[in-house]
Amino acid sequence: MSITDPADKNKVSVSVNGRKYQLLSDLHTHTVYSHGKGSVDDNIRAAIDLGIQTIGIADHGPGHIGFGVPRKKLAEQKAEIRALRLKYPDIKILFGVEANIIASEAGLDIKPEEFPYFDFVCAGWHYGALDGLSPRGLASTLTNLARSKAEQASPRQIRHNTEVIVFALKNFDIEFLTHPGDKAPVDLLEIAAVCARTGTLIEINTSHMSLTAEDLRMMMLTDARFIVNSDAHTPDRVGDFLPALALIAEAGIDMERVVNLKCMS
Ligand SMILES: [Zn+2]
Ligand SMILES: [Zn+2]
């Protein structure tokens, strides 16, 4: 496998084994509304500079204790994005949210009736979601904090985490599952099989890189599809997709299954 550095002119176009691929979108970026370092405008300009066609702003859902965006601020962010669409008409700007998957009956910190408020809802497992303070949630959080790696996790812990995520996948229209396996070890094959059925994309997250080539090959046994995102918390990381390309190439999987990579030649 050989990856050629991106050409200066278009930094999100890369050659892999003689074929050229372009990153079409980066839907998972954070801003100062949660704990990112740049403004919404900064992330959009970074994406424009790279030639990305679609940028997504997906700050943390309101249920996170540390950096969840309160609903009132989400309304402000939505209005800001609406204004920025007029300022930057040549790039598609999507207003999303990275909801928190929670080990409670609610399942997610975004309610079903709130989904139409966003252009998309992605979701992932994070420490510090509010319902993590319920007795069941707290036990789950402490267990995962103590044994966050798959090789340390107990079968019971993996089963619990998998069931919590599967519940969210089945009950909410989640666009993509962020950084699966990170922070909470799960049965990735089962998760991928459910994602294939619900049409939820599996994220290859270049900030966390929690998936191995072996994980990817295993998940490819299902019909699940994938999306590459930077999870940028600083504007300079927007569009960072080289680590994902290297992993995909190492796994030897079909790039056609990655929805936001386009083969140019
Ligand atoms: Zn996350
Ligand atoms: Zn994130």
Description:
With 265 residues, this protein is α/β, with parallel strands linked by helices. 32% of the residues lie in helices and 19% in strands. It contains seven helices and eleven strands. It has a single domain, classed as Metal-dependent hydrolases (TIM Barrel, Alpha-Beta Barrel). The chain has a four-stranded antiparallel beta sheet. It is globular, with a radius of gyration of 18 Å. Strand 2 and strand 3 form a beta hairpin. The two termini are 17 Å apart. It binds zinc ion (2 copies). The site of one zinc ion has 5 residues, from loops.
User: What is the ordering of alpha helices and beta strands?
Assistant: EEEEHEHEEHHEHEHEHE
Shape: globular
Q: CATH H-level name... which superfamily?
A: Metal-dependent hydrolases
What is the CATH first-level class name?
A: Alpha Beta
CATH fold name:
TIM Barrel
Mean pLDDT metric: 90
Flag low-confidence runs.
none
Bound molecules: zinc ion
Total DSSP E strands: 11
CATH architecture: Alpha-Beta Barrel
Distance between the termini: 17 Å
Q: Give the helix proportion (percent range).
A: 25-40%
Strand order, largest beta sheet: 1-2-3-11
Total number of domains: 1
DSSP strand (E) fraction? 15-25%
How many H/I helical runs?
7
Structural class of the helix and strand makeup?
alpha/beta
Radius of gyration: 18 Å
Largest sheet features: 4 strands, antiparallel
